[in-house]
Amino acid sequence: SSGINAEYGALLPVPSSSTSRKLKPVVETESSIRVILTSIAMSGFRPGYYPREYNPKVHGPYLPSRYYGKPDTPLGDVKLGELKAWVGRRDFSPNGLVSVLCRGYEKWNHKFFKTQKYSAVPILQGFALFSIWMFFARYKERKSGGAHCKYH
Fold first, then answer.
1. What angle do CA 67, 69, 70 make, to 5 degrees?
2. Is 87 helix (H, G, I), strand (E, B) or coil?
3. Coil, strand, or helix at residue 92?
4. What's the pTM?
5. Closest CA to 69 of 87, 51, 82
6. What would the pLDDT profile of 74-129 be if each residue is shown by its tens digit?
7. CA of 61: how far to CAs of 68, 87, 108, 130, 134, in Å?
């Protein structure tokens, strides 16, 4: 009744007391392709919903750049003998990878774009990323060293 639907972990209207009608997530009511992609390939990725670990009473306002799961040892504090176990606790599922990329983007966006004094740093970072991308995209052209024919 607080507006939190525990079944889906998002702020959705909760049905009144004893209704037999269950709320369905938006993904199930859309096209069957999206349902299949979401249920199989993304293994739980739910766009438009809060993470399952997020609790507004405990965490306060939602921050997209924050990890709401159980805190773990930072990589800098991990000893070499514990490194294999630490890597084993990471989430390498498609959902986990998408979550990491989204959190990283939100941190970068908040640090460089959502500021009071805007600078040229994000533009320069974009140019650097484009340069690295083109370096690897044109590798086959440069691999021969620029020789178009055999020297006689």
1. 125
2. helix
3. coil
4. 0.58
5. 51
6. 999 999 999 999 999 988 888 888 888 888 999 998 898 888 888 999 999 999 99
7. 12, 30, 19, 35, 40
